[in-house]
Amino acid sequence: MSNMENQKSHAPLTTNASTMKDFSPEFCDIGILDNGKTIPDFIDDKINELGLKDSEEPFFVASLDSLYMKHVRWVTKLPRVTPFYAVKCNSTPAVLKMLRALGTGFDCASKGEIKLALSLGVTPDKIIYAHTIKPPSHIKYACTHGVNMMTFDSEDELQKISLNHAKAKLVLRIAVDDSKSLTRLNFKFGAGLETVAKLLERAKELSLEVIGVSFHVGNRCCDSLTFKQAIADARQAFDIANMMGFKLSVLDIGGGYFGREESLDKFNECSEVINAALEECFPPDSGVEVIAEPGRYYVESSFTLVMSITGKKVITDDVDEQGDDVGKKCNKRMMYYMNDGVYGNLNASLDPNFKFEPHLKRAVKDSEQRYKTTVWGPTCDSMDKICDTCYLPELHIGDWLILNNMGAYSTSLSTDFNGFEKAHIYSVVAAELWHTLNLSQTSNNN
Ligand SMILES: Cc1ncc(COP(=O)(O)O)c(C=O)c1O
User: Fold this and answer.
1) How many angstroms separate the alpha carbon of residue 293 from the centre of ligand 1?
2) Is the pLDDT of residue 262 over 80?
3) Active-site position among 108, 143, 330, 380
């Protein structure tokens, strides 16, 4: 990892002994990359292994080094904001264990996610139940397991919470402008500022404790100034609450951050805007604790999906007279059928913003003919289309394709529709980081 030097310079990122015991390879299926072995080497080995077993199943390689780097970046750029990782984005145990070891909190959306987090040793005080609409039995589960912090945005939810978890510590989710984000959330969730007083009044009537305000600007927020306005809106909600006698102490600035390495500038820009807005609206001496619920930010670039071609059709009867993307006339069009698709880990390909940009295992010459290509997933469903039109060199059954940046909302949305098994996830960590973390453990014990 080119950033390993950077990683080492962050002394605060230590871990504790019991955490690392649970996290060691015997307890968790993690491969240690030693002797300079890289992720591409690991992928080559796995492909060879599968070949020997006559198998061509898709698989993920999850880089814990990348996850670690993301965390280093987060605490460096947003030192006042404690991340509560959004489990829904990718609930792979190794990911949760690594983040727990690094000291993040967790945003859980249901009893199932709370159960998973607790089973991996996360303590209840490190969990926010951040779904504003919760089934009563899930609220009860949170109550009996000591998970107290939870969000709400309606009077009916308050009523439900008062019946099932009267000691909950509530965070009011407000609706903010999400129009600059690639996926909007506020049609479904969040209370308008004009309803804040009424909701707080109702909480008071029910003797419920409200401790803070949250918002979510929508997934993949393209305009960092959205955070500035959202934080100002949250300040207004705090002021209303203060006037009504509440003492709020938590601001939760939600998710919505990009996760690819090439989006680093965007993240840096967002953090600057967030830091300045916090300084203005919630300065450190306000005593307000600031948390966030990043999902995609942490995991998107950490997962690489490796998939293979299991079927191919060459079409010659409706040739594209326009030629390929480099202007050459071509006399055939290709269709490939992959071993992973929309119902597996490529649900994102239904999103109009998705770009199918695979790397091929074999070297491709610039001079090679590109063909107009449609790429399908493995199921019998015609919706299972990964890419309608792209231009690729000719590929063959058995060829492997590699997709980077596949960690967000991929494995957590995958199904076994049509009987195709879910992709295996191989989590790997560079030996150097592994030892660094163990060293941190030792120094913590001293
Ligand atoms: C309540 C809540 N928090 C956090 C997240 C994570 O968002 P992101 O992956 O955009 O950071 C989501 C995702 O939709 C969410 O609904």
Assistant:
1) 6
2) yes
3) 380
**What's the CA-to-centroid distance between 271 and ligand 1, angstroms?**
17
Which of 55, 42, 36, 73 lies closest to 301 in space, CA to CA?
A: 73
Q: What is the pLDDT of residue 251?
A: 98
| Segment 312-341, tens digit of pLDDT | 999 997 655 555 555 556 779 999 999 999
Query: When comparing pLDDT for 12 and 268, which is higher?
Result: 268
Measure the CA–CA gap between 165 and 157, rounded to whole angstroms. Answer: 11
Q: Which of 219, 226, 299, 301 to mutate to test the pocket of ligand 1 (most atoms within 8 A of CB)?
A: 219
What pLDDT is stored for residue 19 in this prediction?
Answer: 53
Question: Over 70: is that where the pLDDT of 361 sits?
Answer: yes
CA 366 to centroid of ligand 1, rounded, Å: 40
- Ligand 1 binding pocket, CB closer than 6 Å: 86, 89, 107, 130, 185, 216, 219, 254-257, 293-297
Report how far apart, in Å, the C-alpha atoms of 8 and of each of 15, 65, 98, 425, 439 are: 13, 12, 16, 27, 11
Alpha carbon distance 410, 85 (integer Å): 16
- Structure tokens that stand for 308 in this block: 């293979």
The domains of the chain, with CATH numbers, are 65-300 (3.20.20.10), 303-428 (2.40.37.10)
Question: Can 380 be counted among the known catalytic residues?
Answer: yes
The more confidently predicted of residues 403 and 16 is 403
Portion of the chain with pLDDT greater than 90, in percent: 77
Q: Which atom of ligand 1 is nearest to the CA of 218?
A: 10
